[in-house]
Structure to design on (266 residues):
Protein backbone atom coordinates (compact mmCIF):
# COMPACT_ATOMS: atom_id res chain seq x y z
CA UNK A 1 0.00 0.00 0.00
CA UNK A 2 1.12 3.52 -0.76
CA UNK A 3 0.54 5.99 2.06
CA UNK A 4 0.40 8.89 -0.40
CA UNK A 5 -2.65 7.40 -2.14
CA UNK A 6 -4.75 6.55 0.93
CA UNK A 7 -7.30 8.69 2.74
CA UNK A 8 -7.25 8.97 6.51
CA UNK A 9 -10.35 6.75 6.60
CA UNK A 10 -8.50 4.03 4.66
CA UNK A 11 -5.44 4.40 6.87
CA UNK A 12 -7.57 4.04 9.98
CA UNK A 13 -8.86 0.70 8.69
CA UNK A 14 -5.34 -0.77 8.57
CA UNK A 15 -4.01 -2.99 11.35
CA UNK A 16 -1.77 -0.26 12.73
CA UNK A 17 -0.12 -2.43 15.35
CA UNK A 18 1.05 -5.04 12.87
CA UNK A 19 1.42 -3.42 9.46
CA UNK A 20 5.01 -2.45 8.67
CA UNK A 21 5.56 1.18 7.70
CA UNK A 22 8.51 1.68 5.34
CA UNK A 23 10.08 5.14 5.19
CA UNK A 24 12.82 5.34 2.50
CA UNK A 25 15.47 8.03 2.87
CA UNK A 26 17.94 9.06 0.18
CA UNK A 27 20.11 12.03 -0.76
CA UNK A 28 20.65 14.66 -3.43
CA UNK A 29 24.41 14.90 -3.84
CA UNK A 30 27.18 14.82 -6.40
CA UNK A 31 27.96 11.36 -7.74
CA UNK A 32 31.07 12.03 -9.74
CA UNK A 33 31.00 13.19 -13.34
CA UNK A 34 28.87 10.30 -14.62
CA UNK A 35 25.82 9.82 -12.34
CA UNK A 36 22.84 12.07 -11.60
CA UNK A 37 22.77 13.77 -8.21
CA UNK A 38 19.50 11.93 -7.42
CA UNK A 39 21.27 8.54 -7.51
CA UNK A 40 20.73 7.53 -3.87
CA UNK A 41 17.11 8.67 -3.81
CA UNK A 42 16.36 6.90 -7.09
CA UNK A 43 17.88 3.61 -5.96
CA UNK A 44 16.29 3.41 -2.50
CA UNK A 45 12.92 4.40 -4.01
CA UNK A 46 13.08 1.57 -6.56
CA UNK A 47 14.13 -1.00 -3.95
CA UNK A 48 11.30 0.11 -1.66
CA UNK A 49 8.75 0.01 -4.48
CA UNK A 50 9.93 -3.48 -5.43
CA UNK A 51 9.24 -4.69 -1.90
CA UNK A 52 5.83 -2.99 -1.79
CA UNK A 53 4.80 -4.72 -5.01
CA UNK A 54 5.49 -8.11 -3.42
CA UNK A 55 4.10 -7.44 0.06
CA UNK A 56 1.16 -5.13 -0.72
CA UNK A 57 -1.24 -5.25 2.27
CA UNK A 58 1.58 -6.19 4.67
CA UNK A 59 3.47 -2.98 3.96
CA UNK A 60 2.66 0.73 4.03
CA UNK A 61 5.17 2.60 1.87
CA UNK A 62 5.81 6.29 2.59
CA UNK A 63 7.11 8.72 -0.03
CA UNK A 64 10.91 8.85 -0.07
CA UNK A 65 12.64 11.64 1.83
CA UNK A 66 14.88 12.84 -1.04
CA UNK A 67 17.39 14.87 0.98
CA UNK A 68 20.05 13.48 3.28
CA UNK A 69 23.07 14.42 5.35
CA UNK A 70 25.72 15.10 2.71
CA UNK A 71 27.80 18.07 3.84
CA UNK A 72 31.02 16.23 2.93
CA UNK A 73 30.00 16.40 -0.74
CA UNK A 74 29.16 20.12 -0.82
CA UNK A 75 32.58 21.29 -2.15
CA UNK A 76 31.90 19.53 -5.47
CA UNK A 77 28.59 21.34 -5.96
CA UNK A 78 25.26 19.82 -6.96
CA UNK A 79 24.55 18.75 -3.38
CA UNK A 80 21.52 19.72 -1.28
CA UNK A 81 22.30 18.64 2.29
CA UNK A 82 20.82 18.65 5.77
CA UNK A 83 23.40 18.89 8.58
CA UNK A 84 23.76 15.78 10.73
CA UNK A 85 22.16 17.29 13.84
CA UNK A 86 19.17 18.65 11.92
CA UNK A 87 18.83 15.43 9.92
CA UNK A 88 18.66 13.44 13.14
CA UNK A 89 15.80 15.66 14.29
CA UNK A 90 14.06 15.37 10.90
CA UNK A 91 14.03 11.57 11.22
CA UNK A 92 12.83 11.80 14.81
CA UNK A 93 9.93 14.07 13.93
CA UNK A 94 8.88 12.12 10.84
CA UNK A 95 8.88 8.90 12.85
CA UNK A 96 6.97 10.59 15.68
CA UNK A 97 4.29 11.56 13.17
CA UNK A 98 3.84 7.90 12.31
CA UNK A 99 3.80 6.91 15.97
CA UNK A 100 1.13 9.50 16.74
CA UNK A 101 -0.93 8.06 13.88
CA UNK A 102 -0.90 4.74 15.74
CA UNK A 103 1.74 2.77 13.82
CA UNK A 104 4.16 0.69 15.91
CA UNK A 105 6.35 -1.17 13.39
CA UNK A 106 8.50 1.27 11.43
CA UNK A 107 11.45 0.66 9.11
CA UNK A 108 13.56 3.62 7.99
CA UNK A 109 15.22 2.29 4.83
CA UNK A 110 18.42 4.11 4.02
CA UNK A 111 20.05 4.67 0.64
CA UNK A 112 22.99 6.96 1.55
CA UNK A 113 26.04 6.25 3.68
CA UNK A 114 26.10 9.71 5.24
CA UNK A 115 22.67 9.09 6.77
CA UNK A 116 23.80 6.13 8.85
CA UNK A 117 25.28 7.93 11.87
CA UNK A 118 22.45 10.48 12.30
CA UNK A 119 19.95 7.70 11.61
CA UNK A 120 21.25 5.63 14.51
CA UNK A 121 21.23 8.72 16.71
CA UNK A 122 17.57 9.27 15.82
CA UNK A 123 16.81 5.74 17.03
CA UNK A 124 18.49 6.51 20.36
CA UNK A 125 16.34 9.60 20.83
CA UNK A 126 13.15 7.76 19.90
CA UNK A 127 14.00 4.90 22.24
CA UNK A 128 14.54 7.27 25.16
CA UNK A 129 11.23 9.04 24.49
CA UNK A 130 8.91 6.14 23.69
CA UNK A 131 10.16 2.78 25.00
CA UNK A 132 8.43 3.19 28.37
CA UNK A 133 5.16 4.42 26.86
CA UNK A 134 4.37 3.31 23.30
CA UNK A 135 7.14 0.67 23.14
CA UNK A 136 7.28 0.55 19.32
CA UNK A 137 9.61 -1.51 17.12
CA UNK A 138 11.62 0.99 15.04
CA UNK A 139 14.66 0.05 12.96
CA UNK A 140 17.09 1.84 10.65
CA UNK A 141 18.35 -0.38 7.82
CA UNK A 142 20.59 0.27 4.81
CA UNK A 143 19.55 -1.70 1.73
CA UNK A 144 23.01 -2.78 0.57
CA UNK A 145 23.94 -3.94 4.07
CA UNK A 146 20.71 -5.96 4.29
CA UNK A 147 21.72 -7.70 1.05
CA UNK A 148 25.08 -8.68 2.55
CA UNK A 149 27.57 -10.46 0.32
CA UNK A 150 25.67 -9.61 -2.86
CA UNK A 151 26.86 -6.03 -2.33
CA UNK A 152 30.24 -7.07 -0.93
CA UNK A 153 32.09 -8.81 -3.72
CA UNK A 154 29.99 -11.81 -4.71
CA UNK A 155 30.16 -12.51 -8.47
CA UNK A 156 29.38 -11.08 -10.95
CA UNK A 157 30.68 -8.00 -9.11
CA UNK A 158 34.38 -7.40 -9.62
CA UNK A 159 35.07 -5.01 -6.74
CA UNK A 160 34.69 -5.88 -3.05
CA UNK A 161 32.16 -3.32 -1.81
CA UNK A 162 29.60 -0.66 -2.67
CA UNK A 163 31.03 2.81 -2.10
CA UNK A 164 30.08 5.95 -4.04
CA UNK A 165 29.33 6.29 -7.76
CA UNK A 166 31.14 2.97 -8.02
CA UNK A 167 30.65 -0.26 -9.99
CA UNK A 168 27.58 -1.06 -7.87
CA UNK A 169 25.70 2.24 -8.03
CA UNK A 170 26.61 2.71 -11.70
CA UNK A 171 25.27 -0.76 -12.48
CA UNK A 172 22.04 -0.19 -10.55
CA UNK A 173 21.31 3.09 -12.33
CA UNK A 174 22.15 1.56 -15.72
CA UNK A 175 19.44 -1.01 -15.01
CA UNK A 176 16.83 1.13 -13.24
CA UNK A 177 17.25 4.59 -14.74
CA UNK A 178 19.82 4.63 -17.56
CA UNK A 179 18.97 8.22 -18.47
CA UNK A 180 20.68 9.25 -15.23
CA UNK A 181 24.01 7.75 -16.30
CA UNK A 182 26.50 9.55 -18.56
CA UNK A 183 28.83 6.76 -19.75
CA UNK A 184 31.09 9.08 -21.71
CA UNK A 185 32.01 10.83 -18.44
CA UNK A 186 33.01 7.69 -16.51
CA UNK A 187 36.54 7.88 -15.16
CA UNK A 188 38.32 6.32 -12.23
CA UNK A 189 39.12 8.89 -9.54
CA UNK A 190 42.54 9.50 -8.04
CA UNK A 191 42.51 8.38 -4.41
CA UNK A 192 44.92 8.89 -1.46
CA UNK A 193 47.82 6.52 -0.92
CA UNK A 194 47.00 3.82 1.62
CA UNK A 195 48.15 4.36 5.20
CA UNK A 196 47.28 0.79 6.16
CA UNK A 197 44.29 1.69 8.36
CA UNK A 198 41.82 3.93 6.52
CA UNK A 199 40.01 2.25 3.60
CA UNK A 200 40.45 4.97 0.99
CA UNK A 201 40.10 2.25 -1.64
CA UNK A 202 37.38 -0.37 -1.64
CA UNK A 203 39.85 -3.25 -1.50
CA UNK A 204 41.16 -2.18 1.92
CA UNK A 205 39.28 -3.88 4.76
CA UNK A 206 37.84 -1.80 7.59
CA UNK A 207 40.10 -2.11 10.66
CA UNK A 208 38.07 -0.22 13.24
CA UNK A 209 39.65 3.17 12.49
CA UNK A 210 37.54 6.05 11.17
CA UNK A 211 38.65 9.41 9.80
CA UNK A 212 36.21 11.96 8.39
CA UNK A 213 37.35 14.19 5.52
CA UNK A 214 35.57 16.27 2.91
CA UNK A 215 35.20 14.36 -0.35
CA UNK A 216 37.75 16.40 -2.38
CA UNK A 217 40.47 15.13 -0.04
CA UNK A 218 39.72 11.49 -0.85
CA UNK A 219 38.58 11.62 -4.49
CA UNK A 220 39.69 13.72 -7.44
CA UNK A 221 36.28 13.70 -9.18
CA UNK A 222 33.80 12.78 -6.45
CA UNK A 223 33.47 9.09 -7.29
CA UNK A 224 35.14 6.00 -5.87
CA UNK A 225 35.70 2.38 -6.76
CA UNK A 226 35.67 1.20 -10.38
CA UNK A 227 32.63 2.76 -12.11
CA UNK A 228 33.92 1.69 -15.53
CA UNK A 229 33.04 -1.90 -14.57
CA UNK A 230 29.33 -1.12 -14.18
CA UNK A 231 26.78 -2.82 -16.45
CA UNK A 232 23.00 -2.98 -16.61
CA UNK A 233 23.11 -6.77 -16.21
CA UNK A 234 25.01 -6.42 -12.95
CA UNK A 235 22.49 -3.79 -11.88
CA UNK A 236 19.55 -6.13 -12.49
CA UNK A 237 21.33 -8.80 -10.44
CA UNK A 238 21.95 -6.37 -7.56
CA UNK A 239 18.42 -4.98 -7.65
CA UNK A 240 16.79 -8.39 -7.46
CA UNK A 241 18.91 -9.36 -4.46
CA UNK A 242 18.30 -6.01 -2.75
CA UNK A 243 14.51 -6.38 -3.09
CA UNK A 244 14.61 -10.01 -2.00
CA UNK A 245 16.67 -9.16 1.09
CA UNK A 246 14.31 -6.32 2.01
CA UNK A 247 11.21 -8.50 1.56
CA UNK A 248 12.72 -11.25 3.70
CA UNK A 249 13.60 -8.76 6.42
CA UNK A 250 10.17 -7.12 6.46
CA UNK A 251 8.45 -10.49 6.69
CA UNK A 252 10.62 -11.30 9.70
CA UNK A 253 10.26 -7.85 11.27
CA UNK A 254 6.47 -8.08 11.02
CA UNK A 255 6.55 -11.05 13.41
CA UNK A 256 8.97 -9.60 15.96
CA UNK A 257 7.36 -9.36 19.40
CA UNK A 258 7.28 -6.03 21.17
CA UNK A 259 9.95 -6.39 23.82
CA UNK A 260 8.92 -6.58 27.46
CA UNK A 261 10.39 -4.43 30.20
CA UNK A 262 12.43 -7.11 31.98
CA UNK A 263 13.15 -4.84 34.94
CA UNK A 264 9.48 -4.80 35.79
CA UNK A 265 9.46 -8.60 35.82
CA UNK A 266 12.43 -9.00 38.20
Amino acid sequence: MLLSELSIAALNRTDKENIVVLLPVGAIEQHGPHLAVSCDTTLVSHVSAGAEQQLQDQLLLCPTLPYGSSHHHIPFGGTVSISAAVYTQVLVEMTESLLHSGFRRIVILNGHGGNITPGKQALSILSAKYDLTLNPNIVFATYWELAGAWFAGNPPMETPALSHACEYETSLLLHLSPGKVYPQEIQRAKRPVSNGFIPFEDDEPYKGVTMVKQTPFISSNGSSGEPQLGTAAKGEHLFNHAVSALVNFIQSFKEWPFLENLQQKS
Q: What stands out?
A: The mean pLDDT is 95.
